[in-house]
Design a protein that fits this description.
Nucleotidyltransferase, domain 5, 2 domains, 6 strands, about 35% helix, IS5 family transposase, globular, 8 helices, Transposase_6_like, IS402-like_dom, Transposase_11, six-stranded mixed β-sheet, alpha/beta
Length: about 230
Amino acid sequence: MRRYGLSDSQWERIKDLLPGREDHVVGTAADTRLFVEAVLYRYRAGIPRRDLPARFGDWKNVHRRLRRWCEGGVIERIFRQLAADRDNDCMMIDSTIVRAHQHSAGARKKGGADQAIGRSRGGLTSKIHAIVGAAGKAVALSLTPGQRADITEAAPLLDEVDPAAFIADRAYDADPLIEELEERQITPVIPSRKNRRDPWKLSFRLYKNRNIIERFFARLKSTFPAAV
């Protein structure tokens, strides 16, 4: 297997979700696997799309095809399929800031598209919100402008999962979220804010697992430097 390439087992898990698969009504795209590996190579190597090696073909075609897949929901479909294979014992939520590339700021938005770029103390930034399972794999994701408060994405992301225990830091200590968790019979593992009058007991045995999501963000930024 080439560096940054897909193993045969990885390819088997996603190939039936992709346009151009065998028996597809439009016909078979023989280079679909090569295209997927081109996308992985570009983001994992952290290179401009113009610098893709020649073996992947014309970089413009790769970029055009990726854009069509994103707009058509193909990438999201792959993520949801892979995220469905998860352990619901415990999950954790957090966010991380991503600096907007200098070339991404100030460009005219096409079709009024939301680019999820905002201004925070770090300048022009985006924020990745994620719920991660006990195995360290993302099961729900959202992208917002960098100044968006963490708590605002908790409820929408929580709608996509059903864990037995939900771990978060004290930025997520809010009565509406706690009430929703208790209503759904999900154990909240969230430290109380210092100004809370009646702080609750915290299961430190469960809370110490929160480092899993910190490691997830570290792995994400080191594996895909061009994307984050």
